[in-house]
Design goal:
88% helix; mainly alpha
């Protein structure tokens, strides 16, 4: 059981590392595109890396939080597809508003800020494309590896919960009145002690 949970934990850690690497690759991809478009590399441009890391991490958190809400009894690929269907519009709206804001910021006449805004806008679009393709693929691979383990754990928890519920209902049938009288006597004694 310990090796099973350790393996699952390492798999999830690898998925997080893969998501971060995908975000950093989209950063490199956006720098390549901006260089191909002839946009200058200014002293402020490296700050885009932190901005893109924040936007990409937010996208991953949105996908992962919605994935937790999708029923686990579905096929792993279908789970990720449903999660992306629900997370996609939210990610698209945040990406498009951020990209539009940075493209609008690129209309200023200050060259360093113009280059930064163009780099950020192109980078945000690259992060969106990466989140919808490569990061989602990493999450799907993780889900397909961990879903049999998750189903086994959920089944085990369900069996244990059913046994505990049956035991508690049996004990409630035999000692229900005793528990009620005990709680009433405790509350009565507490209320009397507060009045003195």
């Amino acid at each position: 059981s310990l090796s099973l949970s350790l393996s699952l934990s390492l798999s999830l850690t690898h998925t997080h590392a893969q998501a971060i690497m995908c975000i950093q690759l989209s950063f490199a991809w956006s720098f390549g595109l901006t260089a191909a478009f002839g946009i200058i590399f200014s002293a402020v441009t490296p700050v885009c890396g932190f901005l893109l890391l924040a936007v990409g991490t937010d996208d991953v958190f949105i996908i992962a939080s919605i994935l937790e809400q999708v029923p686990k009894d579905l096929d792993p690929v279908e789970r990720v597809g449903r999660a992306l269907a629900h997370a996609g519009p939210a990610i698209l709206i945040t990406t498009s508003t951020s990209a539009i804001a940075f493209f609008a910021g690129a209309t200023i006449r200050f060259p360093a800020m113009q280059a930064f805004c163009l780099d950020a806008a192109i980078g945000i679009v690259c992060v969106f494309l990466t989140a919808c393709s490569a990061i989602t693929a990493c999450i799907a691979v993780h889900e397909s590896r961990s879903s049999p383990i998750d189903r086994w754990i959920d089944q085990k928890r369900g069996t244990d919960k059913q046994a505990a519920d049956a035991e508690s209902s049996e004990s409630a049938d035999t000692s229900g009145w005793r528990g009620l009288s005990l709680s009433l006597s405790l509350s009565l004694s507490l209320s009397l002690s507060h009045t003195h």
